[in-house]
Amino acid sequence: MSRKGNTLVLTAVMLFISILIQPVLRAETLEEKVNEFELENGMKFLVVERHEAPVAFCAIVFNVGSANEWPNVTGISHLLEHMMFKGSKKIGTTNYKKEIPYIEKTDQLGEKTIELRDRMGEWRFEAFKDFSKTVIAGFSEEEQAEVGTDKDKQTRLLIEKIRALEEMPEELSSRKYLLEQDGTDYLELYLEYEEAWGEIVRLTDEERSKYIINNELWESYMNNGSRMLNAGTSNDFTVYFVYLPSNRLELWMTLESDRMDEPVFREFWTERDVVMEERRLSENDPDDVLDEAFNSVAFTACPYKWPVLGWMSDLRTTDRKELMEYHRIHYAPNNATAVVVGDIDLAMVKKMAKKYFGSIPAQPRPAHLETREPEQQGERRLVIEHEANPKLMIGYHKPLYPDPEAVVFEVMNSVLSDGRTSRLYKSIFEEKQLTAEPPQVYTGPGERYDNLLIFSAEPRHPHTLEEVEAAIYEEIEKLKSEPVSERELQRIKNQMDYTKIQQLGSNLGIAFTVLIGEIYRGDYKAMFKMSEMIKEVTAEDVMKAAEKYLTEKNRTVAWRVQVEKEDTGEADAEQGLDEEKLRAYIMSLPQDEMMAIVQKLQSMRSEAEMIEYGKELLKQAEASGFFKDKEE
């Protein structure tokens, strides 16, 4: 399961595509080999038979991502991806009917916490939460030993200590209207909130111990020889995929149809907290902070302006009923496309698809996104401050396929940043040595709606953001005035052909080529049409597109400027946890090890416990030589 929105999972997938080189299926023959059929409920299947090895890559992509959300309901697509691994009425439980009272009661309590927090107001809640942390930090050694990692015990002791106070500390009593206003005791509302959360945790733990079979779906796949079981949420879609022995195709049909039709979002309230913690980590990630700020300024109408993880204020007011309705609408069979590539028989796939997915009812199609980004009327600039190294982002609005100008940007990207012979690599990175790494050029944040051509670069000390920005503009102006040579153009087209052929050399590469075409372009055949259109791009086309779109009026510029790290005292020293290093190490591990760590972290009930486990992992990484290898 992806815990980083789309980037980590989907980037890993595309890396896999480039290295899994199997007997090559030529691009011009793939279109002929894709077999397409549709069930009566509207679910589409794309099937490619390849009998080189007894394995199959299977995926289902749902036509929903963060771009399909709306204000007050952001981050719900990613939250739903988490919850889809919690099982169904049949999977993940020893007795679903006996779970129902637990689910209903935690829902009642969860709704109560949302209402209480809203009544308090966020400023009061934050003040009370900070005070609670101080009280918990003051627990005696005996009390800490008694509480251990039991969140419910910790909450009950916290409430007991606060209610026993004869006088409130000045940090609370000195703030006007904080404790009481118009006869309402707001501290008591906060304690009711904590009581409700403690009871949610207690009930969830009891449900786990009595009825929940943890990770049954995951283990059902793993025990049958599967690998690469994962999922990813992006701006544009949500995908679930797995590589498995071809004689286990029916297992995939059984499990995936079951969680499409009758998912049970058990452990919802505690899992929502896990997602909110991921959101908090993102708020401390310097690249995520810059990306979010950049997108929020670059877009005024397009929903790419909010992040895949959503906004924290929206996540904390999402309830299970809202998630169930979102699933009903967006995870309907008529909003899904399945792809199966490998050692399978088309007739058998059709038979199984009808048997397992055919009875799932279609739903009214979600509203089509009609909002379009208005033309930008002038340069936009923003600056954020962070302890991380300086970084620059520049974005230009650009056309989308099927506009023929859209494919010109595929060539333009390669001219500017693809490999050691690209212009930004040779000029800015190699000759002038202005940047720590070669500047990147890519399109984003998504590909279905109005998007950007984005430049990204980090200055190399002692060079500045101003120098790097000026150097990029210099190369852009050359692009407008100096035609790409025919030899350079042909080299780029040949390289793009070669990359495409490499991708089509594996079941995984074929599946994602077909799926991306279907989701981004509305038809998998569009990927092959685009390849033909790219071959027709001329040097003049590149110059015209640069002249038309890479203008000051059409650009957004973001700077991340470095500020000195604040001295936070002993707490940080005691914590001693480098989250960036920890994240890099976890992402480097094999898939099964990575998921074991994620699942263990999810099972923990306190921040202190997570920190201690994180320190253990960092010690493992250092002992294995991971950081030394990275430095070398």
SSE layout and pairings?
Layout: H1 7-19, H2 27-33, E1 35-38, E2 44-49, E3 55-62, H3 76-83, H4 96-120, H5 122-137, H6 141-147, H7 151-163, H8 170-173, E4 180-181, E5 184-185, H9 186-210, H10 216-222, E6 227-233, E7 238-245, H11 249-261, H12 268-284, H13 286-298, H14 312-315, H15 320-330, E8 336-342, H16 346-357, E9 380-386, E10 391-398, H17 404-417, H18 423-431, E11 440-444, E12 451-457, H19 465-481, H20 486-503, H21 507-521, H22 526-535, H23 539-549, E13 555-562, H24 570-575, H25 579-588, H26 591-603, H27 607-624, H28 626-631
Parallel strand pairs: 2-8, 9-13
Antiparallel strand pairs: 1-2, 3-7, 3-8, 4-5, 6-7, 10-12, 10-13, 11-12
Question: What labels describe this entry?
Answer:
single chain; 632 residues; alpha+beta; Cytochrome Bc1 Complex, Chain A, domain 1; 4 domains; 6-stranded mixed beta sheet; 5-stranded mixed beta sheet; globular; disordered N terminus
Estimate percent helicity.
40-55%
Oligomeric status: single chain
Helix- and strand-based class? alpha+beta
Strand neighbour order, sheet with most strands: 1-2-8-3-7-6
Query: Based on CA inertia axes, which overall geometry fits?
Result: globular
CATH architecture of the largest domain: 2-Layer Sandwich
Low-confidence spans = 1-25, 569-575
Distance between the termini: 31 Å
In percent, how much strand structure appears in the residues? 5-15%
Outline the biggest β-sheet. Answer: 6 strands, mixed
CATH superfamily of the largest domain: Metalloenzyme, LuxS/M16 peptidase-like
Count the helices. How many? 28
The top-level CATH class of the largest domain is Alpha Beta
* pLDDT averaged over residues: 89
